[in-house]
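pinging the channel bc i need a second pair of eyes. not urgent but kinda urgent?? the chain im working w is below, pasted from the shared doc
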Amino acid sequence: MKKIGIILILTISLISCTQTKIAYVDVEELMKEYKGTKEAEASMKEKSDKLKSELDSLVAGWEAKARTYQSKMQKMSPKNRAQREQILMQEQQAIGQRQQVIQQQVQKEGQESLKALSKEINDFVKNYAKEKGYNFVLGTTGENGTVMYGEEKADITDDVLVQLNKSYKAKE
């Protein structure tokens, strides 16, 4: 009987010593406040603005040609008018195709950037968890997260964000 009591006490003390350490982070907050995300967004906006400027220039050139055509079309022969209209239509279609290519390019680059940022944050959290001794770090996002409840002291979002931004500074 004494041996069972000792084994029970040892088991309880071992279980209490090997307590699982769990925390969670608000992934949405990390993505929003991470300096890497802000820099990537600024870079994407700059690229997008540059491409928009290029498109605006193409459209303005086409509109100028269309105005010139409209002002001179009364004096043109039907054959010249048809040729000119055909050219204007082809140019308009080319501009539309260029716009689609640019939109697809911007969307693809945005997805690649988001994927890279997510990987970077996930890798950081993995290393952070190992360093701080967490067995699990759960991710939640706003009101529709996977963590239904968590004590405030288990929320490590702010500390992870501070460390993540420090590691980003070190890269600069």
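so The mean pLDDT is 85. and The CA atoms of residues 102 and 159 lie 39 Å apart. — does that match what u expected or am i reading it wrong
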